[in-house]
Amino acid sequence: MPIDFRYYISSLAAIFLALGIGIVIGGALMGNDEIVKSQEMLILSLEQEFQQLRSEKKYLQDGLKARDLEIEVLRQFNREILPLLVKDLLTDRKIAVIKTNPTIDSGLTAEMIKILHQAGAEVQRIINFTEWPDLTLESKTVAARLGFKADELWLEHLFSRFMEEVASGERDEILSSLQANNLIQVNGNIKEPIDTLILFGGSHDEKMIRVDEFDLTLVKTAQNIGLTVVGVEPLSASFSYIRKYKNTGLITIDNVDTLPGQVALVFALVSGKKGEFGVKETAQALLPKLPPKLPTKTR
Q: Which of 42, 118, 151, 254 is the most buried (most CB within 10 A)?
């Protein structure tokens, strides 16, 4: 537990004040030199303890400054070395990124995409799901707005067609409808097929968890199409999707908002081997092992 020096200092100040008042009153009323001498010795002892606490505080502060500097140097080193580490590993890879939960910061997606670009990948489309109405209450209304009959399977049919459009790069009927109803935001409009889907999940709000309805339906269609699918989330996610992703056989990265997690994502796509990577209890290892012979650039 960290030491709260402010608490100690304020406590000692209160003791000094109380002792000072005691000396004045005790000396005036009793005239007892032994009592005064005893109190003076106690004050001297407290002063020494106070000085020791100040010295310990300065020592700890200096140590923290040195540690902060060391961490910043390591971060800078990682930022400098990362582009060299991943360069051209994902050449010719065509990727779509779908972030399914609006409580996760879109800036984290941008950081991940930057690394993918440095690795040579083409990120064709970036799709962010916005906040949807509560489908337990408004399912019929949402289905009607999107042109679907509100039966038990309408959401599965919607996301199957949605995923087919994303994968093929052809037609934008469902994508356009979802955009028009402010249910998704789309960046990038390259009309080419993709070979890889990165699902960016996790949530900071328990009420916004829709991994079963959204993510797993997208995974099912993407796998049927033959896409490589990776499930990722930030280390900071309050509610994890990794176990759900893992159960569908996905490659998973649980700390993609960190440099090690971003390297793990690139290495996992290169190796193609399924596994769970990161630092959470679901992870098998921090990083995947690269194959002995890396793919060569073909263009």
A: 254
